[in-house]
Fold these 2 entries.
Entry 1:
Amino acid sequence: MSTDIETLLEELGSGDETRAQQAIEALAERPFDSLPYLVILLASEDEDARWWAVTALSYFPPEIAGEYLIEALDDTAKPVRQCALIGLQQQPHVEALPGLVQLVGDLDALTARLAGGAIARLGETALPALQEIMGGDNARARIQAARALAEMQIEAAIPTLFEALSDPLSIVVYWAEEGLERLGVGMSFFNPE
């Protein structure tokens, strides 16, 4: 192992957030040199080591780190999965969509929200998956899908947002209205008379 990368990895696991952040930035400047060592950390039994590895990979370009962030969506530790979701928000990766769709209805509210946010960052590519979720029975998933549609602000989502106005969940209706408002459609389709 390169001595300087070894030092950076020690800093990464030092427990000092400032030093760890500096190490992450230095590792990200040398992604091809540091990637093999971060991949080893991803296989560690130590949850903290995996979390820090995923955090560092979140700073790498998606073409280098995307597959590892996607794999981390299946990690046994919730914080590692959540960290991968944050990474996929920072570095959108279309190949992550199937894993994100699975997590958007997660029982853990933060996990579901992070998954929805990562889906929103994929833009129009994610629209068919979001439309399918909106037509499904999973209430948690519909909430996050509606929020993602509102955040995406794409005109192709307008029909789906209009359909969501009749959802039995008021929070889904809220996000549908919010999405339509952001798109400039708002509630102007109602005749007040």
Entry 2:
Amino acid sequence: MTYKPSEREEEYFKRVEFERKQKAEEERHKALADKERAQMKELHYMHCPKCGLNLIEIDYQGIKVDKCSSCEGIWLDAGEFEFVSMKEKGFLDNFFGVFKK
């Protein structure tokens, strides 16, 4: 005697198979995104967002400031601006005075 699955059973197994394939596809996309993110970081790490040339890291009173070797733009990483703004106003004047020509 052969067993024929009901419509509900077939629907269940099709749904399980779809979810398995969907999860595999999401993992593939995540792996590609991670790979692309790593490539972008390698390409752009320590390069000026404005002109694309190398950034030089300067240590100024415990803050790592990135300064462009070409356009002389000043770049602060996440949290560094908050650290600077918590200091007294005179500190900001001195801080930005260091980078004036």
